[in-house]
Amino acid sequence: MKRILLFSLMILCSLGLFAQDEFKKANFSEKFKKENQGKVKIEIDEVKELLHIMIAITEVGLENDDMVAQTGDYYKDVIQNFKRFENEAIILKFDSIMKSNPVYYIFLTGNALSYNFKGGKLVEDKTYIFPAQSVSSHTTVKINPITTYKKEIEDFAKKSGFRKFFKSHKDYYNKIISDYNRLADLQKQWDWLESKCKTQVNNYTIMCSPLINGLNYTTSYTDNGFKQIMMVLPPVEEDPKLSQMDNIVLNTRIMFTEIDHNYVSNPTTQNKELIDNVFKNREEWVDTTKYGTEYYPNPERVFNEYMTFGLFLIYCKDNFSPDVAEKANQQVAELMTDRGFSKMKIFTENLLKIYDKNQNNKVDDWYPEFINSFSK
After folding, report:
1. Per-residue model confidence as pLDDT tens digits over 314-339
2. What is the pLDDT of residues 356-369, one digit of tens each?
């Protein structure tokens, strides 16, 4: 049951995390804008990592390897150093609220960005005010839980020796960051997307933790004329059984299909009526017997999921050798079919034909031609 609840939460996140919020999420000062314009930042935040560790030793966290990555030396270090504190009142409290609603995983780890350590105390961050307020229209919080449990979190960090632990693992955290740049190259993906699409973004930030596993999501913050896309992701993977190029393609796909939601959603919304008409026969496009497809209940969401992976395959065509791009086509077709999106192959064939005719035009401009190609 816990696995099903967490999977449902993951689907909600993949569909666009935060809905309309009542309170200000972020404050982008002129100084922040100047320092971050056009830049990619990959970070393992100290307070956020503390919350991931606290969740990892709850009963929920110990039983859910989807929620918490439970392999590798780092996880062993976390258990060795912190599991003895599993019966602390604040850990039992976090366990209780996540059992009542697993979305609190997001509310706790996401709002950790609103505080920083100053000595042994938590002080309010000047940029992220209340970043994680809602996961859907009916799942919201009006009070920042980090503010509510601020003293208890401070006490736990002191009693457990967390800050010393975090400092001692700095080299490992730095390696995670360098691996991102080596195996995924977010800057290259970003530059390509902005050259092909009308949507423009000012900054990309990846908030990472070695304890993140299946629950990945993307959200955005807009303030003072500045738009930041934030992705919450696990470390990139480097499978020793795969070639270097296969590892690059795999990690690029994982990241790209998070990023390009931001570029696909606008033209999809602008062409909603046309998509609703052409893709109205849902069972032609989705194998409804596959678990998870119920979270794509209408033509717009079905089309968006296809297009998210389709745009990745265009990127492969433009940036990798023909044989690498063809292999990526086959892998994506198999992946999507397994998930219930059984027409990925024909979707991709039409997509690449239309793209070949429109390489000098923005994706947004040839959307109608592409959608209509299926009405034939």
Report:
1. 999 999 999 999 999 999 999 999 99
2. 999 999 999 999 99
Token code pair at residue 300: 């717009």
Which among 44, 12, 14 has a CA at the least distance from the CA of 258? 14
Picking from 39, 18, 35, the residue whose alpha carbon sits closest to that of residue 221 is 18
- CB neighbour list of residue 249: distance below 8 Å, 6 or more residues apart: 316, 320, 324, 327, 328, 331
**Residue-wise pLDDT tens digits, 45-100:** 999 999 999 999 999 999 999 899 999 999 999 999 999 999 999 999 999 999 99
Residue with tokens 């859907």: 136
Predicted TM-score of the model (pTM):
0.83
CA distance 362 to 367: 9
Length of the chain: 376
Q: Phi/psi at 177 (nearest 5 deg)?
A: -65, -45
Tell me how far CA of residue 166 lies from CA of 69, 77, 160, in angstroms.
17, 11, 11
Q: How confident is the model over 109-131, as a mean pLDDT? A: 97
CB 306 within 8 A of CB 341: yes
Residue 118 corresponds to which amino acid?
Answer: K
Please state, in angstroms and rounded to a whole number, the distance separating the CA atoms of residues 67 and 159.
25
- What CA–CA distance (Å, rounded) separates 41 from 28? 15
Q: How many CB atoms lie within 10 A of CB 240?
A: 5
- Euclidean distance between CA atoms 374 and 346, whole angstroms: 9
- Complete DSSP assignment for 21-79: -SS--B---HHHHHHHTTEEEEE--HHHHHHHHHHHTSHHHHH-TTTB---HHHHHHHH
Q: How far, in Å, CA of 146 to CA of 141, rounded?
A: 12
Alpha helices in the chain (DSSP H): 2-14, 30-36, 46-56, 59-63, 72-82, 89-100, 104-111, 145-148, 150-160, 162-168, 170-183, 186-196, 244-259, 261-270, 272-278, 282-285, 299-319, 322-339, 344-357, 363-372
